[in-house]
Amino acid sequence: MSGVRVVLLGPPGSGKGTQAKLLQEKFTACQISTGDILRKAVNEQTPLGKQAADYIQRGELVPDNLIVKLVAERLKEPDCEKGFILDGFPRTISQARSLEEILTRMGLVLKCVLSMQVPRKSIVERLSGRRTCKGCGALYHLVFDPPKAAGICNRCGGELFQRDDDREETITNRLNVYDSQTAPLENFYRDRGLLKEIDGVGKVEEIGRRIIQAVGVVAA
Ligand code: AMP
Q: Is the Cβ–Cβ distance between 159 and 135 less than 8 Å?
């Protein structure tokens, strides 16, 4: 297995999903978004989806054991051989330790961890205006990146919807969960010399360039 192997770290609404999609194209790696995988499982009412639904709805983390199993299996799939971008995983120190074990077993190491830095005020603004395409998963923002026709995806014509957990009451909980359980990962990865802080404010393409530059240095 070769290619770029990175983790995107950052609070909800910091642009991880958008940037992971750009990185995926740039480095022909596969994007692994645990949030997307879980939402699909919830929609399809699979056993995993049924176990995860309530946690997601409340803005809490799904138990580590469920997530770790899911990621371990996903990383073994052939499309990950060209590299991967983890978006939304790990989210706890325990998940980060499990990831190290999984990668060690596979004979791999992470190249870097990109930590998106965005002020709290912008995060709430971004999340409450975020809309997602039901068809292709493309992301929009009602003010900063609106679709050409209201409620319709530019790319596939699919219907745009607001995620349940992007409503204001759940946003606060998700941000608290991030501060208490996920933010400590910054030090975890800083100690390992893997952390790269990325200024996550600005135009999508501008942030993308910063990321590509940061990854490029270690991807060569
Ligand atoms: P996201 O799309 O990354 O914001 O994730 C949406 C929701 O899925 C989160 O609020 C959690 O409930 C759940 N989730 C996603 N990734 C993880 C993870 N690595 N660990 C635990 N829960 C997760």
A: yes
Q: Which two tokens stand for residue 163?
A: 């995620």
Neighbours of 44 (CB within 10 A): 9
Task: Determine the residue type at 216.
Answer: G
Q: How many Å apart are CA 191 and CA 174, to the nearest integer?
A: 26
Q: Tell me how far the alpha carbon of residue 206 is from its chain's centroid.
A: 19
Domain boundaries, the chain: 4-118+182-219
- The yes or no reply on domain 4-118+182-219 and CATH 3.40.50.300 is yes
**What pTM, to 2 d.p., does this model score?**
0.90
Does residue 178 have its Cβ closer than 6 Å to ligand 1? Answer: no
Among 58, 97, 163, 190, which one carries the catalytic annotation? 163
Say how many Å lie between the first and final Cα of the chain, rounded: 15
3-state secondary structure at position 135: coil
Alpha-carbon Rg of the chain, whole angstroms? 17
The tens digit of pLDDT for each residue in 48-92 reads 999 999 999 999 999 999 999 999 999 999 999 999 999 999 999
Residues 6+ apart with CB under 8 A from 34: 67, 70, 71, 86, 87, 88, 89, 91
**Pocket mutation for ligand 1, best pick of 61, 89, 139 (most atoms within 8 Å of C-beta):** 61
Judge whether 164 and 55 are in contact, CB under 8 Å.
no
pLDDT less than 50: residues of the chain: 1, 220
Strands 139-141 and 112-117 turn out to be unpaired
